[in-house]
Every structure is written in C-alpha cells, then in structure tokens.
Amino acid sequence: MTHPPSAIRPAARTSAGQAELYGAVKAMAVRFDFKPGERINEVELARRLNVSRTPLREVLNQLMVEGFLTRSVNRGFIARLLDAKQIHSLYEYRAVLEAGIVRAACERASDEELAGLRAFVERSRDVPEDSDATRLLELDEAFHLHLARLSRNEEFVRALESVNARIHFVRWIDMQQGRRSHTQGEHLRIVQALEQRDADGLAGLMSTHIGRRLDQITDVIRTGFSTIYMRDQAEPAAAAPANTTTAGEKK
After folding, report:
1. Phi, psi angle pair for 125, to nearest 5°
2. Range with the poorest average pLDDT among 34-43, 111-120, 145-154, 220-229
3. Do 21 and 51 touch, CB atoms closer than 8 A?
C-alpha cells in the first residue's frame, strides 16, 4: 500500500492544511495503520504529522462520525475493529445502494455515456491480473463510481464513496486473492444490461456481484489480520539503514 508522507506542513489550521491533515489521517485509518481496537496516542500522532493537537482532534472527531474511530471516556479515540459482522452489514448496505444506482443509471444515462463506460471496462480488462492489488482495486472502485455518476444523483456518489472507504482494506485483501478476473466479467455483463435498459436484470446482477456470505468475509478478515501484523513486523526491518562498515573500520 502507498503510505502518506511522514510529516505534513505545520500550517494545518488553514482550510488546505486541514484538508491535507484529514486526508493523511483518514488514509491511515482506511488501511488499518491504527491496529483494530488500538488507542490513538494523540500526542505521538501530532508529533509524527508535525501538527498541533487542536486540528488533529478535529480530524479525529470527524473520522469518528464517519465510522473509522470510536471514543471512550477513559481511553480517548480508538481505532475501529476489523469485525466480520460489521463488514457484512456494510456489504449488505452497499448491495442495496448500488441496486438503486444501476436502476437510476439505466433510466438516465445516455447511449454515449454507456459507450464510455464500456470503453473503460474494456481498457481495464487489459491490465494484467498480476498487477499491484492497489491498482486493481482503484480500477474496480472507479467503475462503480462511474456508475454512480451516471445516476445523476450526487447523494448516491457520496454514499458510495463513504462505504467504499470503510470496506477498502477488506476489498484490497480480496483483490490480492485473485478475485479480479471474476469481477471483470461481471462488470461487462452489468454494462450489457445497462445498454439493453434491463432494470430488473441489473438489480440481480449487482446483488450477485457485490454480495458476500459472512463466512467468506470472515476468511478475508483472517487474512487481513495477518497482513496488518506481518506488515508492522516487516516495516522496521525495511526502514533500518544498512550497515556498510566493514570489520575493523570505525565511523
């Protein structure tokens, strides 16, 4: 995964600086840089990001509202859990949301816009299956956001962006496990149903495309936990400077 800069400009009180701070901390929350259930050390995080605690706390409060953090009277801000039932609920919500999106897109998108969507899917299919999972997930999310914009409803777009962020890590793990070839074929079938203006068929296709059983999500989350803790063990070793001093030399 791509990591944000280790520090940002101190002028986080400006609207641009606050937006940059929000983006950096949200990225950390999305990919579980904060371990599930971990207490957020505000002093350490402010030092790491080179900001004062006041703008940082504003960002943490916003992320709590968005479901990325919780808060305890005695412990302060706490990273969200990587919980299978909650993720399953988010997938159910996304399935209902996107069923509404494709119905609206089916009614409102022009033939030219659907041709553009088909061209996007065809270009995406040319990206090799063994590409970086982050890149593959970007393409997948872009397809679904493209659909949402064809609905002509900005609330659909905002809602999809929100739920995508909360399941991004799980979907990234899913993409690493070779699901991409399956999703690409389904994307093309969704486009074909849109071109045929088959609203009823679209709802079923989208439900099949997005739906996950609880046991499937549990398996992905098990892999996710391993990824989080193995990543944390690997990073210090990767960051350690190489010792190039040969025997007998002094610095």
Report:
1. -65, -20
2. 220-229
3. yes
DSSP 163-188: HHHHHHHHHHHHHHTT-HHHHHHHHH
Burial, 165: exposed, middle or buried (Cβ in 10 Å; 0-12, 13-18, 19+)?
middle
The number of beta carbons lying within 10 Å of the beta carbon of residue 91 is 20
Quick one: residue 172, left, alpha or beta (phi over 0 = left, psi -120 to 50 = alpha)? Answer: alpha
3-class SS of residue 81: coil
Q: What is the mean pLDDT of residues 46-62?
A: 96
Q: CA 25 to CA 45: how far, in whole Å? A: 9
Which three-class secondary structure string do you get for 84-123? Answer: HHHHHHHHHHHHHHHHHHHHHHHHHCCHHHHHHHHHHHHH
Residue 4 identity (one-letter amino acid)? P
How far is Cα of residue 84 from the mean position of the Cα atoms in its chain? 16
Q: Is 40 helix (H, G, I), strand (E, B) or coil?
A: coil
The pLDDT of residue 234: 64
Q: Which homologous superfamily is 84-218 in?
A: GntR ligand-binding domain-like (1.20.120.530)
Instruction: Kindly list the domain boundaries of the chain, sorted by start residue.
Output: 18-81, 84-218
CATH code of the domain made up of 18-81? 1.10.10.10
